[in-house]
Amino acid sequence: MELAPEQCRAARGLLNWTQEHLAERAGISRSTVRDFERHRHVLHRGTESMLVQTLQEAGIMLLPPGEHGPGVRIR
């Protein structure tokens, strides 16, 4: 699943996580999260996988794009 910057921000909001907290949990730099969420660059596949896995392990469900675009839910 491709992670959208908006999904990343929304997921952090549901979890009440800062960019720094997500970065630490995923094992990546805060600047990577910041720049991705600001549409400054796309993620490498491995980095994207690490973010998705971290969010899913925290209880986030990433919803694929559909009629209303990509979404986020918490389990």
TrEMBL record:
Signal sequence residues: none
Top-level taxon: Bacteria
HTH cro/C1-type domain span: 9-38
Record's protein name: Helix-turn-helix transcriptional regulator
Species this chain originates from: Ancylobacter koreensis
Organism lineage: Bacteria, Pseudomonadati, Pseudomonadota, Alphaproteobacteria, Hyphomicrobiales
